[in-house]
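Tutorial, part two.
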Amino acid sequence: MTNLIKFLILAFFGVNSVYCQSQPKWHLMENKDPDKRTKGYILMRTIMDYGMGIMIFGFGVFFLIAPALGFGFEFESFYRYFFSALCMIYGVWRVYRGYKKNYFR
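Running the prediction step on this input gives:
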């Protein structure tokens, strides 16, 4: 029975969570400056978060003002407003995440 439990833990969480009791790699990155590869990754994620946040927020604004632009949808206005609000909230969250650049903490 214990071998089955160990196998399931290894399958879902990886080898390091069972056999390695040391600190994770991201813990070591707080104490030193990131290398060139890490800086590139942070820049890529930041640009992607800004871009996706602006695009998703734009979809929310579009669904909010779609009837004024002449677009008609088959579903009720409540659902359109609800989806628009979700898009705008998630878009703002993505921009905020790109601003914070908190990818390894």
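The CA atoms of residues 16 and 43 lie 28 Å apart. In part three we will examine how such features are distributed along the chain.
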